[in-house]
Amino acid sequence: xxxxHYLVLKGYGxxxxxxxxxxxLAVFSFLDxxxxxxxxxxYRYAMEKMPSAQKKQLMA
Length: 60
Fold this sequence. Notes:
Oligomer: single chain
Shape: globular
Helix content: 55-70%
Number of domains: 1
Order of helices and strands: HHHH
Radius of gyration: 11 Å
Largest sheet: none
Structural class: mainly alpha
Number of strands: 0
Strand content: under 5%
């Protein structure tokens, strides 16, 4: 999660985005627990496919 290369950040953000379509609650919980630790790039990719209500809650 702390790799500095932008492609690694995009990659695991994309993986979380894809997983959110199968298990949205698990991804939401992970993002909520790690919102201060995760780099912004990966965080934003992971939230892309989430419902707008969850996005707003995560961005607050």
